[in-house]
What does this fold into?
Amino acid sequence: MAILRSKTLFFTTSPRTPMKMIPEIKLLTENFTGNKWNKENQIHYTKLLSQNPYFKGQGSKKDMAFSARDRINRAPKALGFVDLKPTIKLTKAGKAFINGKRSEEALLRQLLKFQLPSPYHKEAASEHGVFWVRPYLEILRLIYELKEITFDELMLFGMQLTDYRKFDEIVNKINDFREGKKEYQGGYKQYFGVVLDSELLKIFNEEILNGKTSTRESTDTSIVKFKKTKRSNLRDYTDACFRYLRATNLVSISHRGHSISIMSDKVNDVKFILNTVKREPVFVNDEIKYKDYLCNDDSPELYTDNIDHLTEYILKHSPKTYSQLVGKNVEELKDIRDNVIDENRKSIISKQVKKLKSYSLYSEVIDTYNEIISDQLYDVPLMLEWNTWRAMTMLDGGHITGNFKIDDAGQPLSTAPGNMPDIVCDYGNFGLTVEVTMQRGQRQYESEGEPVARHLAKFKKETNKEAFCLFIAPQINNASIAFFYTLSKTNIYFYGGTSIIVPLELEIFMKMVENSYTASFIPTPSHIRQLFDFAKAYATNSENEMQWYLAIQEKAEQWLIA
It folds into this structure.
């Protein structure tokens, strides 16, 4: 049982992307069902998890039992997907989530039931009366009420919605913030900093006055350090809230990644939820009844559980006729609806590709990169993957596929899984994997180096054609350069021979995109091939990795010159 000692909302940050729970829950229940969730099994679980290619977390090598609890107790248990007492078992909600056709629907039901306080989350005596809320429900209501909400607004004010009866107060605060932004004489960053500082002092006034400014991460008890820690926590919780709500496919990110809003075709779904789901927490002091309620797989009722609602949606968004739908049950209609959504998503992406290939979105792609570099966007790693897919689609021929997930509105939803490249390019007689990262320094090499080579090797084996890799980052670490240089000169059977991995700084890649835009001809796959042929040949003739790397950067800036 967790003890609530906070003055603000919190959301599970482990795992950061909710659908990553699915393989982790499967691993748990396939290996430990019927066993006690004790320290021994927790350590065993962490060891098994670390061996799986889909797991990208670091975990705690010093306390593997804690790492297991971090992965299982926070989200899978708190959302009712697994029951850990008296022994480990998969719940009805968990079965719908990991085995059902509509994982996002199962996730939505559980998010709507998550509440504070609960038998799983008890208030500390010092914080009694702070919480009385279903956090995801009220944040969804906030998005609906305000039409859209930015990451900063949710961080500043949404995280203060610890009691649903404060809802109107929070709405007024956000509206006042928006008006103040128009009148403020300085830049937005300065305005945001001033407001954030003011809000932190209000929220944690009692702790500051009483000198309770120590944090678990540091012995520094200064107010500056205290506020910095609280700001970081709020940012992490806001990010987690965004990710989990977006995974339900009810809300979508704006095209530039600054805000989220209700998807246009899901407004009725959200209105139904807001009108029918109870706002008050239930069974706060009765764990048995709470578990029965939380772990159920068919509550609360959703808009799409109704045959008439499903029929109406399908008729509105597809050429289907009423006679084709009559007599179908709910599950059959949901299958048809899902196919309609999938076809519409493909149509949206197809239109995006046409615009990209015509260069009509060139300025938008470059502007997005500039915002990525200056860290002005929500979920920068995701936006980097998505925008690089757009850039690769724009700058040359071939069939370009992003392995990141796309929502129903055609906007990026989550980054590529850990066991595959971020982007793959099919150029007919050769292929290309593209890997992007915001990681810098030694962490870049440790996190990205070997997986990049492994993904390329897997791609070569699957396509049975010559293939290369483009590795893009704001800065390239020297260890990464050395590793890729060595692979380009070494015949390694495990990696399918030599591996030509070209590391490029993001600004150099942006220059490549600019060159393709200003060129008097349309670039072809042969032009992109020249860069990798050059990297391969120069690796043989260069004296060291830095000479090779610098020559590649220079060649990339002139990639359209034969």
Summary: The chain has 23 helices and 14 strands.
